[in-house]
## 1
Amino acid sequence: MVVSAAGGWSGVQLRNVQDAQKPRPVSAAKVPGPDAPKSNQLAFNRDGSLPAGATEDSAVRLGSVAEPERPYLAESFRAFGDAVDDAVMSGPHGRYMVTASGGIAAAWDLGDIPEIVADATGMACRSASGGFDRDDWKKQIPDIPFRQTCPKG
């Protein structure tokens, strides 16, 4: 799998490159809006599931590609007053990031974001005590047919 932020495009594109002669698009996550910023640089955590895009609008955007078919924006924050030129992720689980703009560097502790992104469904299910059972579902959302939202176990 390859993640890229093509020049002049505001988001990431995922491609399956098992056949290097015919890379196949898998999915894309675009920053919404007509004036969406362009990415200057991509950085990745150790397992590649959390690309960080340094953008021209002074923000850093962290995207989850842990499930390649369903990428999403995990976090966005302003890093500087000007365009972010560079981003580097390091440390255990890619928890730390250094960004740079106009010769100034900043270090960031991303907290639990890398772990949450690695297993977003599992984290949500643990936070929700396993999700609704049939009875809770019927009480809370009776007009929608029941479906198991969290893995049993």
Note: The two ends are 30 Å apart (CA to CA).
## 2
Amino acid sequence: MEAILASIKMVIILGVVIYLISLSMKVLNRYTTQTAKGIVVLQKVGVTKNSSIGVVQIAGTYYVMSFSETHNQIMKELTVDEGKLFLQNLQTSTTTPEIKQDFAKLLKETSDRILKKGSKK
């Protein structure tokens, strides 16, 4: 009889402990989750296994950025008109050939400019 009573107590205490753990995880999650309200990644395209290129909005300004495991680099700051055009195109459809060509053109111009800077050194 005592064994059954001890088992029931153990199951009840175990349930209370699990409930307290889940409750504390929810509370801690509020304080540990970092949200960057001023930074939004609008589009990201993988280039290689470890790197990608994306368009990022930081505090209202649009940037084309290179992302990799070791560092992130701003490749180009977009003008206000380019940013608005990109947003309009992104909202209509992100898979149209027109957008792919625009992004490819922007990528080529930026990579050419980076190569020119590298050859000057």
Note: The first strand starts at residue 39 and ends at 46.
